[in-house]
Amino acid sequence: MEQWVQRMIDSYSLTPTGINIVEGIYGRDGDGFTSGPHNGKPMDFMSNNIIFGKDAFRVDIIAHWLAGHEPGNFGLFHIGIERGVSDVLNPFDIPVYLWNNGRAKKVSLDTFKRTPLLTLYMRRNYDGYNEDQYHMVDEPFDYTAWRTGNPVADIKPSIKAIGTDPGNGIVMELNVPEESNVYVDIKNRFGDVVWHLKADGLEPGKHEVVWDGFSEPGLYTMYVKGMDWDAERQMVIYT
Predict the structure, then answer these.
(1) CA 142, 77, 125, 123 torsion: positive or negative?
(2) Which residues does 170 contact at the CB level (< 8 Å), separation at least 6?
(3) Would you say 99 and 93 are in contact if contact means Cβ atoms under 8 Å apart?
(4) I want to staple 230 with a disulfide (CB 3.0 to 4.6 A). Which of 171, 178, 187, 225 is the partner?
(5) What would the DSSP string read from start to end of 71-137?
(6) Of 151, 154, 2, whose CA–CA distance to 74 is shortest?
(7) Cα(45)–Cα(60) distance, rounded to whole angstroms?
(8) pLDDT by residue for the chain (239 residues), tens digit each?
(9) Within 13 Å, how many C-alpha atoms sit on residue 229's CB side?
């Protein structure tokens, strides 16, 4: 399972996504394909949900919760934080919006209907537990014990590509840990700086910048620097 998670995050870290969608008008339990707990078959349940957002991990955490599971029990989300591609675990730390008549309205997560879906995930068959092959991963998880300190202070500097804009510019997300003058460099595979940006006085948090001079597919290194911090990441742009 951990090998699968690491490979998924390897792929995610190099694959820019603009918007991430879980189309859940119908949710399927079991293994999600051909096998399940209903005489060996899966079953579809109408949930009437389409979940979408710019951050893949936040979308997936909300989708897990809406399917009746407790996201804190899944290794994918913990390893995502360890790998620096995510910074959230508790679904109630994620702002959610209801899209209605062309507008988004912020609402509480617990106002949404949950549709429990049995899953083929790791089984607890130890210490007196004997979970069925298809089961809920809904054990209570103590998020307060997991999270320490002020979340704002825990922001780690990072940079990643998240998609393209209508003009085919490369959209990048910067994580800024403290107010600072920020410098961004993009280097090609030969180490030449092909794009540079200076942004004065950026506040802590996430910011988007657009590399509007992209013209050639290849391997690039994104580099971001503040007063007392820096971060870098490689990306492959195919087209």
Answers:
(1) positive
(2) 16, 161, 164, 210, 211, 214, 237
(3) no
(4) 225
(5) GGG-HHHHHHHHTTS-----GGGS-EEEEETTEEEEE-GGGSPP----B------STT----SSB--
(6) 2
(7) 18
(8) 889 999 999 998 888 888 999 998 999 999 989 999 999 999 999 999 999 999 999 999 999 999 999 999 999 999 999 888 898 999 999 999 999 888 999 999 999 999 999 999 999 887 788 999 999 999 999 888 776 433 444 578 999 888 888 888 888 999 998 888 999 999 999 999 999 999 998 888 889 999 988 888 889 999 999 988 999 998 888 76
(9) 16
Q: Per this entry, what is the length of the chain?
A: 239
